[in-house]
Design goal:
single chain; about 325 residues; alpha/beta; Rossmann fold; 2 domains; 4-stranded parallel sheet; 11 helices; 11 strands; cytoplasm; glycolysis; allosteric enzyme
């Protein structure tokens, strides 16, 4: 395989640029040509495809977001859209593509694979909800962004003796809430993967107040409900403390990627190129127990799903007494 392309799709994640950089420079090192595709699958179908060289990715490793941009393109779910994209790739002589993104992006790569076009998926999403890997690009940065906010909110919560409900991202996965909550010493963590009892939470808040505790921090994954809705439920359950809601939102997607995300992205990008050079497509790269892995992308998406580490949930319950 001599000519490949790379695209980013779905929600942006810190470290995507580092992954693109790794793909480009590893491919050039291996004597391959690399093309970038702007705006994900929409750009693929539109033919927004252009050559990348060493200079194209200079100074990109530290930048958040994605310089290849991203766009939603539901039309790629159709056979017509998929074949139109493949036609554009073939017009440019492209023999394989690296797709960096989350679940929806992976499904696009899976469709390319089903049509016989070699595609390799790199997991890039702050939610850490892609099966087949312990960690995704952007997750570590998002956790640290949320943690910084929690640490700052604790200061003002203590000053005013308040309860803070901190809503973090994670529609179907509570990983950001779990990791940021444990690291931030949260009193409670509310995630989609585990039920909660509002009365038990109220009991812990009251017990903390009686022993002189000056603040309460509750970290809530957005997939459970909104922060204000949760605060209203606390009030209905008898909470009479001053309660404020902080919704971190898209700030978790931005900013410079952490060292871990940059290294992870570099490993993933280089590994994806190695696989394509060997003529291997239809794979999803990942990391398990700190070892790089490559799994069948169709099997990964069809037969597996991400599981939250509920031992962290129990750990926080044990420590937040």
């Amino acid at each position: 395989m001599k000519r490949i392309a790379v695209l980013t799709s779905g929600g942006d994640a810190p470290g995507m640029n580092a992954a693109v950089r790794a793909v480009v420079r590893k491919a050039i090192t291996e004597g391959m040509e690399v093309f970038g595709i702007n705006y994900g699958y929409a750009g693929m179908v539109a033919g927004d495809i252009f050559p990348l060289d060493i200079a194209s990715v200079g100074d990109k490793i530290a930048r958040g977001g994605t310089f290849l941009y991203s766009a939603r393109y539901p039309e790629f779910a159709t056979r017509e859209g998929q074949l139109a994209g493949i036609d554009q790739l073939k017009k440019h002589g492209i023999e394989g593509v690296v797709v960096i993104g989350g679940d929806g992006s992976y499904h696009g790569a899976m469709r390319l694979t089903e049509h016989g076009f070699p595609a390799v998926g790199i997991p890039g999403t702050i939610d850490n909800d892609i099966p087949g890997t312990d960690y995704t690009i952007g997750f570590d940065t998002a956790v640290n962004t949320a943690l910084d906010a929690i640490d700052r909110l604790r200061d003002t919560a203590t000053s005013h003796v308040r309860t803070f409900v901190v809503e973090v991202m994670g529609r179907g996965a509570g990983d950001i809430a779990l990791w940021a909550g444990v690291a931030g010493g949260a009193d409670d963590i509310i995630i989609p993967e585990h039920d909660f009892d509002i009365k038990e939470i109220m009991t812990r808040i009251e017990a903390g107040r009686k022993r002189g505790k000056k603040h309460t921090i509750i970290v809530l994954a957005e997939g459970v409900m909104g922060g204000q809705e949760f605060a209203d439920k606390l009030k209905e359950a008898g909470n009479d403390t001053d309660t404020r809601v902080s919704i971190l939102g898209h700030v978790q997607r931005g900013g410079m990627p952490t060292a871990r995300d940059r290294v992870l992205a570099s490993k993933f990008g280089a590994y994806a190129v190695e696989l394509l050079k060997e003529g291997r497509g239809g794979l999803a790269v990942g990391i398990e127990k700190e070892e790089l892995v490559a799994k069948d992308i169709i099997d990964t998406l069809t037969n597996h799903k991400h599981k939250a580490d509920l031992s962290l949930y129990q750990l926080n319950a044990d420590l937040s007494i």
